[in-house]
Amino acid sequence: MSILVVGSVAFDSVETPFGRVDNVLGGSATYFSTSASFFTDVNLVAVVGEDFPQDHIDFLKSRNIDLRGLTRGQGKTFHWKGRYGYDLNEAQTLETHLNVFETFSPRIPDEYAGADFLFLANIDPELQMEVLDQVHRPRIVACDTMNFWISSKPEALKKVIERVDIFIINEGEARQLSGEANLVKAARKLLGYGVKTLIVKRGEYGVLMFTPTSIFSAPAYPLEEVFDPTGAGDTFAGGFMGYLANTGDSSEEGIRQAIIFGSVMASFNVEDFSLNRLKSLEYREIEDRYRSFKAMTHFQGLPLAVTEL
Q1: What is the pLDDT of residues 7-33, one digit of tens each?
Q2: Phi-psi region of 115 (alpha: psi -120 to 50; beta: other; left: phi over 0)
Q3: Collapsing DSSP states into helix, strand and coil, what is residue 15?
Protein backbone atom coordinates (compact mmCIF):
# COMPACT_ATOMS: atom_id res chain seq x y z
CA MET A 1 0.00 0.00 0.00
CA SER A 2 1.25 3.49 -0.80
CA ILE A 3 2.19 6.26 1.62
CA LEU A 4 1.63 9.97 1.05
CA VAL A 5 4.04 12.25 2.94
CA VAL A 6 3.86 16.03 3.10
CA GLY A 7 6.80 17.90 4.59
CA SER A 8 10.10 19.61 3.84
CA VAL A 9 12.91 18.85 1.42
CA ALA A 10 15.89 20.94 2.44
CA PHE A 11 19.59 21.63 2.64
CA ASP A 12 21.25 21.03 6.00
CA SER A 13 24.53 22.31 7.38
CA VAL A 14 25.41 20.32 10.49
CA GLU A 15 28.27 20.30 12.96
CA THR A 16 28.77 17.61 15.60
CA PRO A 17 31.80 16.70 17.73
CA PHE A 18 32.60 14.12 15.04
CA GLY A 19 32.57 16.26 11.92
CA ARG A 20 30.84 18.87 9.81
CA VAL A 21 28.92 18.98 6.53
CA ASP A 22 27.52 21.90 4.56
CA ASN A 23 24.50 22.11 2.26
CA VAL A 24 23.77 18.40 2.27
CA LEU A 25 20.39 16.83 1.48
CA GLY A 26 17.95 16.99 4.39
CA GLY A 27 14.39 17.82 5.34
CA SER A 28 11.70 15.90 7.21
CA ALA A 29 10.00 14.50 4.12
CA THR A 30 13.34 13.46 2.61
CA TYR A 31 14.38 11.37 5.61
CA PHE A 32 10.88 9.93 5.96
CA SER A 33 10.55 9.02 2.27
CA THR A 34 13.97 7.42 2.02
CA SER A 35 13.36 5.29 5.10
CA ALA A 36 9.82 4.27 4.12
CA SER A 37 10.93 3.39 0.58
CA PHE A 38 12.65 0.26 1.89
CA PHE A 39 9.18 -1.12 2.64
CA THR A 40 6.62 0.41 0.26
CA ASP A 41 5.84 2.99 -2.44
CA VAL A 42 6.04 6.61 -1.35
CA ASN A 43 4.38 9.71 -2.83
CA LEU A 44 6.11 12.94 -1.82
CA VAL A 45 4.60 16.45 -1.64
CA ALA A 46 7.06 19.26 -0.93
CA VAL A 47 8.70 22.31 -2.50
CA VAL A 48 12.31 23.03 -3.46
CA GLY A 49 14.02 26.03 -4.97
CA GLU A 50 15.73 26.72 -8.26
CA ASP A 51 19.05 25.76 -6.65
CA PHE A 52 18.02 22.17 -5.88
CA PRO A 53 20.40 19.93 -7.85
CA GLN A 54 19.40 17.19 -10.24
CA ASP A 55 21.51 14.57 -8.47
CA HIS A 56 19.25 14.85 -5.39
CA ILE A 57 16.22 14.39 -7.64
CA ASP A 58 17.90 11.37 -9.21
CA PHE A 59 18.61 9.85 -5.79
CA LEU A 60 15.00 10.18 -4.66
CA LYS A 61 13.79 8.64 -7.91
CA SER A 62 16.27 5.80 -7.47
CA ARG A 63 14.42 4.91 -4.27
CA ASN A 64 11.15 4.67 -6.28
CA ILE A 65 9.79 7.78 -4.57
CA ASP A 66 7.09 9.37 -6.72
CA LEU A 67 7.95 13.06 -7.17
CA ARG A 68 4.90 14.31 -9.06
CA GLY A 69 4.01 16.26 -5.91
CA LEU A 70 7.44 17.92 -5.64
CA THR A 71 7.26 21.46 -7.00
CA ARG A 72 10.10 23.86 -7.79
CA GLY A 73 9.50 27.42 -6.63
CA GLN A 74 11.21 30.65 -7.57
CA GLY A 75 13.96 31.24 -5.04
CA LYS A 76 16.21 29.13 -2.85
CA THR A 77 15.57 25.82 -1.10
CA PHE A 78 14.83 25.71 2.64
CA HIS A 79 18.15 25.67 4.53
CA TRP A 80 18.74 24.71 8.19
CA LYS A 81 22.05 25.08 10.00
CA GLY A 82 22.61 23.49 13.39
CA ARG A 83 25.16 22.24 15.88
CA TYR A 84 25.21 19.33 18.34
CA GLY A 85 27.40 19.01 21.41
CA TYR A 86 28.27 15.72 23.04
CA ASP A 87 24.65 15.53 24.19
CA LEU A 88 23.36 14.50 20.79
CA ASN A 89 19.74 14.56 21.94
CA GLU A 90 19.44 18.33 21.46
CA ALA A 91 20.36 20.46 18.44
CA GLN A 92 21.28 24.11 18.64
CA THR A 93 19.74 25.90 15.68
CA LEU A 94 22.20 28.44 14.28
CA GLU A 95 20.29 29.58 11.18
CA THR A 96 16.96 28.87 9.54
CA HIS A 97 16.24 30.16 6.04
CA LEU A 98 12.74 29.12 5.00
CA ASN A 99 13.12 30.52 1.48
CA VAL A 100 10.53 28.89 -0.84
CA PHE A 101 9.18 26.86 2.09
CA GLU A 102 7.86 30.08 3.65
CA THR A 103 5.02 30.24 1.11
CA PHE A 104 4.55 26.48 0.77
CA SER A 105 0.88 25.59 0.30
CA PRO A 106 0.57 21.84 -0.28
CA ARG A 107 -1.63 20.79 -3.18
CA ILE A 108 -2.27 17.07 -3.30
CA PRO A 109 -2.28 15.63 -6.84
CA ASP A 110 -5.40 13.65 -7.69
CA GLU A 111 -3.25 10.52 -8.04
CA TYR A 112 -2.21 10.84 -4.37
CA ALA A 113 -5.56 11.74 -2.80
CA GLY A 114 -6.57 8.10 -2.35
CA ALA A 115 -3.39 7.04 -0.52
CA ASP A 116 -3.94 4.37 2.11
CA PHE A 117 -1.43 5.86 4.55
CA LEU A 118 -0.74 9.55 5.21
CA PHE A 119 2.13 11.06 7.17
CA LEU A 120 2.00 14.74 8.04
CA ALA A 121 5.61 15.67 8.70
CA ASN A 122 6.68 18.63 10.80
CA ILE A 123 4.94 21.60 9.13
CA ASP A 124 2.48 24.29 10.19
CA PRO A 125 -0.60 22.57 11.69
CA GLU A 126 -2.82 24.78 9.54
CA LEU A 127 -1.12 23.28 6.47
CA GLN A 128 -1.54 19.82 7.97
CA MET A 129 -5.26 20.52 8.21
CA GLU A 130 -5.33 21.64 4.56
CA VAL A 131 -3.81 18.30 3.58
CA LEU A 132 -6.39 16.38 5.62
CA ASP A 133 -9.14 18.22 3.76
CA GLN A 134 -7.70 17.11 0.39
CA VAL A 135 -7.38 13.35 0.93
CA HIS A 136 -9.99 10.57 0.83
CA ARG A 137 -10.15 8.73 4.16
CA PRO A 138 -6.72 7.07 4.46
CA ARG A 139 -6.61 3.91 6.55
CA ILE A 140 -3.97 5.38 8.85
CA VAL A 141 -3.03 9.03 9.39
CA ALA A 142 0.03 9.90 11.48
CA CYS A 143 1.58 13.27 12.19
CA ASP A 144 4.62 14.87 13.77
CA THR A 145 5.16 18.37 15.14
CA MET A 146 7.75 20.50 16.98
CA ASN A 147 8.05 22.91 19.89
CA PHE A 148 7.66 25.98 17.64
CA TRP A 149 4.14 24.96 16.57
CA ILE A 150 3.24 23.90 20.11
CA SER A 151 4.13 27.40 21.31
CA SER A 152 2.70 29.41 18.43
CA LYS A 153 -0.36 27.43 17.27
CA PRO A 154 -1.45 25.03 20.04
CA GLU A 155 -5.17 25.17 19.24
CA ALA A 156 -4.63 24.49 15.54
CA LEU A 157 -2.38 21.58 16.47
CA LYS A 158 -5.01 20.12 18.80
CA LYS A 159 -7.55 20.21 15.95
CA VAL A 160 -5.14 18.21 13.80
CA ILE A 161 -4.58 15.68 16.60
CA GLU A 162 -8.33 15.07 16.76
CA ARG A 163 -8.22 13.86 13.14
CA VAL A 164 -5.17 11.58 13.22
CA ASP A 165 -4.74 7.98 14.34
CA ILE A 166 -1.11 8.13 15.46
CA PHE A 167 0.64 11.14 16.97
CA ILE A 168 4.46 11.06 17.05
CA ILE A 169 6.22 13.53 19.33
CA ASN A 170 9.41 13.75 21.35
CA GLU A 171 9.60 13.68 25.12
CA GLY A 172 10.10 17.40 25.69
CA GLU A 173 7.31 18.29 23.28
CA ALA A 174 4.92 15.88 25.01
CA ARG A 175 5.52 17.67 28.30
CA GLN A 176 5.24 21.09 26.64
CA LEU A 177 1.95 20.37 24.85
CA SER A 178 0.32 18.64 27.82
CA GLY A 179 1.63 20.94 30.54
CA GLU A 180 2.53 17.83 32.58
CA ALA A 181 6.03 17.15 33.89
CA ASN A 182 5.40 13.44 34.37
CA LEU A 183 5.55 11.65 31.03
CA VAL A 184 2.84 9.09 31.84
CA LYS A 185 0.46 11.86 32.92
CA ALA A 186 1.41 13.82 29.81
CA ALA A 187 0.58 10.83 27.61
CA ARG A 188 -2.81 10.34 29.22
CA LYS A 189 -3.65 13.98 28.64
CA LEU A 190 -2.58 13.86 24.99
CA LEU A 191 -4.62 10.72 24.40
CA GLY A 192 -7.54 12.70 25.74
CA TYR A 193 -7.23 15.02 22.73
CA GLY A 194 -8.62 12.21 20.58
CA VAL A 195 -5.60 10.41 19.12
CA LYS A 196 -5.74 6.59 19.29
CA THR A 197 -2.00 5.92 19.61
CA LEU A 198 0.72 8.18 21.00
CA ILE A 199 4.37 7.49 20.25
CA VAL A 200 6.94 9.39 22.30
CA LYS A 201 10.51 9.52 20.95
CA ARG A 202 13.16 9.62 23.68
CA GLY A 203 16.40 9.78 21.69
CA GLU A 204 19.08 7.48 23.08
CA TYR A 205 16.52 6.13 25.59
CA GLY A 206 14.25 4.66 22.92
CA VAL A 207 10.52 4.97 22.32
CA LEU A 208 7.35 4.71 24.40
CA MET A 209 3.95 3.90 22.90
CA PHE A 210 0.75 4.75 24.75
CA THR A 211 -2.80 3.68 23.95
CA PRO A 212 -5.85 4.13 26.21
CA THR A 213 -5.29 0.59 27.52
CA SER A 214 -1.57 -0.20 27.25
CA ILE A 215 2.03 1.01 27.32
CA PHE A 216 4.87 -0.40 25.21
CA SER A 217 8.56 0.43 25.63
CA ALA A 218 11.32 -0.13 23.08
CA PRO A 219 14.98 0.70 23.74
CA ALA A 220 17.29 2.48 21.36
CA TYR A 221 19.82 0.24 19.66
CA PRO A 222 23.22 0.52 21.40
CA LEU A 223 25.77 1.89 18.95
CA GLU A 224 29.51 2.39 19.30
CA GLU A 225 29.53 5.35 16.92
CA VAL A 226 26.89 8.05 16.44
CA PHE A 227 27.90 10.77 13.99
CA ASP A 228 24.76 12.80 13.29
CA PRO A 229 21.27 12.49 14.80
CA THR A 230 19.71 14.89 12.28
CA GLY A 231 16.62 13.33 10.74
CA ALA A 232 16.57 10.36 13.13
CA GLY A 233 12.98 11.04 14.18
CA ASP A 234 11.78 11.32 10.60
CA THR A 235 13.72 8.19 9.67
CA PHE A 236 12.02 6.41 12.57
CA ALA A 237 8.62 7.57 11.32
CA GLY A 238 9.45 6.40 7.79
CA GLY A 239 10.41 2.92 8.90
CA PHE A 240 7.41 2.77 11.21
CA MET A 241 4.85 3.84 8.60
CA GLY A 242 6.60 1.93 5.83
CA TYR A 243 6.27 -1.33 7.74
CA LEU A 244 2.59 -0.67 8.51
CA ALA A 245 1.90 0.04 4.85
CA ASN A 246 3.83 -3.04 3.78
CA THR A 247 1.89 -5.41 6.04
CA GLY A 248 -1.44 -3.61 6.34
CA ASP A 249 -1.46 -4.74 9.97
CA SER A 250 -2.60 -1.87 12.21
CA SER A 251 -3.32 -4.07 15.25
CA GLU A 252 -1.46 -3.22 18.44
CA GLU A 253 0.93 -6.10 17.79
CA GLY A 254 1.55 -4.79 14.28
CA ILE A 255 2.21 -1.29 15.60
CA ARG A 256 4.69 -2.68 18.15
CA GLN A 257 6.59 -4.44 15.38
CA ALA A 258 6.50 -1.25 13.30
CA ILE A 259 8.06 0.65 16.21
CA ILE A 260 11.01 -1.74 16.19
CA PHE A 261 11.45 -1.36 12.43
CA GLY A 262 11.34 2.42 12.89
CA SER A 263 13.96 2.17 15.62
CA VAL A 264 16.11 -0.01 13.36
CA MET A 265 16.00 2.59 10.57
CA ALA A 266 16.81 5.45 12.95
CA SER A 267 19.78 3.50 14.32
CA PHE A 268 21.26 3.24 10.84
CA ASN A 269 20.58 6.89 10.02
CA VAL A 270 22.71 8.25 12.89
CA GLU A 271 25.76 6.26 11.79
CA ASP A 272 26.71 8.93 9.21
CA PHE A 273 25.88 12.46 8.12
CA SER A 274 22.85 13.35 6.02
CA LEU A 275 21.39 10.30 4.24
CA ASN A 276 24.77 8.71 3.54
CA ARG A 277 24.12 5.59 5.61
CA LEU A 278 20.65 5.06 4.17
CA LYS A 279 22.12 5.35 0.67
CA SER A 280 24.40 2.37 1.28
CA LEU A 281 21.93 0.37 3.39
CA GLU A 282 20.73 -3.03 2.20
CA TYR A 283 17.51 -4.70 3.34
CA ARG A 284 19.32 -7.73 4.77
CA GLU A 285 21.01 -5.37 7.24
CA ILE A 286 17.59 -4.15 8.35
CA GLU A 287 16.43 -7.72 8.97
CA ASP A 288 19.64 -8.57 10.86
CA ARG A 289 19.29 -5.58 13.16
CA TYR A 290 15.61 -6.33 13.77
CA ARG A 291 16.66 -9.80 14.95
CA SER A 292 19.29 -8.19 17.20
CA PHE A 293 16.58 -5.97 18.71
CA LYS A 294 14.46 -9.02 19.45
CA ALA A 295 17.35 -10.90 21.05
CA MET A 296 18.34 -7.83 23.08
CA THR A 297 14.87 -7.37 24.58
CA HIS A 298 13.76 -10.99 25.00
CA PHE A 299 13.32 -12.54 28.43
CA GLN A 300 11.47 -15.56 29.75
CA GLY A 301 8.15 -15.50 31.53
CA LEU A 302 7.85 -15.89 35.29
CA PRO A 303 9.60 -19.16 36.27
CA LEU A 304 7.25 -21.80 37.60
CA ALA A 305 9.80 -22.81 40.24
CA VAL A 306 9.58 -19.47 42.05
CA THR A 307 7.30 -19.64 45.08
CA GLU A 308 6.20 -16.96 47.51
CA LEU A 309 8.13 -16.93 50.80
Answers
A1: 999 999 999 999 999 999 999 999 999
A2: beta
A3: strand
